[in-house]
Amino acid sequence: MVRYIFVTGGVVSSLGKGLSSASLAYLLQSRGFKVRLRKLDPYLNVDPGTMSPFQHGEVFVTDDGAETDLDLGHYERFSGTSAKKTDNITTGKIYSDVLKKERKGEYLGKTVQVIPHITDRIKEFIKNDVAKEDFIICEIGGTVGDIESLPFVEAIRQFSNDVGKKNTLFIHLTLVPYMKASDEIKTKPTQHSVKELRSIGIQPDIIICRSERAIPLDQRKKISLFCNVDIKNVIETVDVKTIYEAPISFNNENLDKQVLEYFKIKTRKKVNLNPWKKITKIVLHTKKSVNIAIVGKYIGLKDAYKSLDEALTHGGIHNNLKVNLIRIDSEKLNISEIKNKLKDAAGILIPGGFGKRGTEGKIEAINYSRKNKIPFLGICFGMQMAIIEFARNQLNIKKATSSEFGPGGSPIIGLINEWNKDGKIIKGTDKVLGGTMRLGLYEAKLKDNSLIKKIYKCKSIKERHRHRYEINIAYKDQFEKNGMIFSGLSPDMKLPEIIELKNHPWFIGVQFHPEFKSRPLAPHPLFSSFIKAAKNHK
Ligand code: GLN
To answer: Which residues contact ligand 1 via a Cβ below 6 A?
Structure first.
């Protein structure tokens, strides 16, 4: 029987609802339960795919090709379970579904309204695609009190009535600030936030209090009393030194125990925290480190390359190394500074990206790593830029470019209109931008005796894609004759998936995003190998 856990947030945003939900998922899984994590986002975009990473951070891509909120990345990394299209929904998607039905005449004769039509659609989403799960953890984006999140909160209130209170649990995450001037922990914002939640019909069952410092018993009692929550269910979460400590910390605070007690579920199975303890130790105490430069356009916002930063850290964990990231803004990188800015980097990474802005800086950085034999990893756009660099400087195609940058030049990278997915032809376009890229898992066949095959230790791989442009396969021979090998191809041999350099210790470009599949407890081999190469670079 499936139980539903709803996680809301109050007082301020960015309290770590995603991380709390993901940690709870791990703890319940470790006790032997099957858990799915879902996210309901209140914004009006149908999905975050059309938002700038500066606005909303990274767009996370699932195996089945959904462009989703980055919290789904946390969910996957902590729970080890791959998310699906059916695990993230936005207000925009809900409304577009309801309006499509309205135009078809499916509500004929009725007035279409937020309650019940929008709330019904939200409830349908919460329950969709559930098979043998014991728990569905649903995180509601935004902060209680926002106009935008009201229909979601109303929907979960109704949902609890529909499936029964004993099958639903409400967790509310709030901030409990520490006031330096009076040396006090303040519970009032939490009281207000819970009051707000109750005014729209939801009484939280568990309150997670995010705090800089431990919350004294008196203050906990106060929260319990004013917010009408059992003291055992006032859980504190004091800032952790690394996110990998979060499952340990929530377990110490009995979060999983209280959840099971609420549902009256008994289990003797103990939580296994050893893997998290082990990696926390490495992350916090390893002395040796390696410097990796990320040359990208979205350096200003930390969350813009969330999965990438994580995957590099995982690669470090695998090699028992701390990874220091040197973030370099490609727009501000000019030739005269390259050497100076990259001199301390033992590895250079060019991440995914869109548009011409900042590309020349990336190309210069690639040239620098190619010439100086510094380990290089180019991801998606980074691989495309490596192709342009090589074409211009090694093949003497001076005007080498991508058709993404407009007409003219020699477009070695071009828009593709259709491609093959497991035998089916899929059409792409750049006329409609939402959800029309080559998205999700695609297979690549790996070339014998290549570095990539040595790294993956298999003949064929499946990785997640998110791009519209492709390297033109017609150039393959010309590149290979000059030392750049197309070491991974789509099964129909039409699309270059991986490139590598013959005379270089470690130079790889991939058309996909390996970072989405890396997990702290299972680091991705490409990142482990890249960090190892950086470690060996003198
Ligand atoms: N802009 C490039 C494309 O659409 C690369 C996309 C990416 O790096 N994710 O092909």
So the answer is: 352-354, 380-381, 404, 466-469
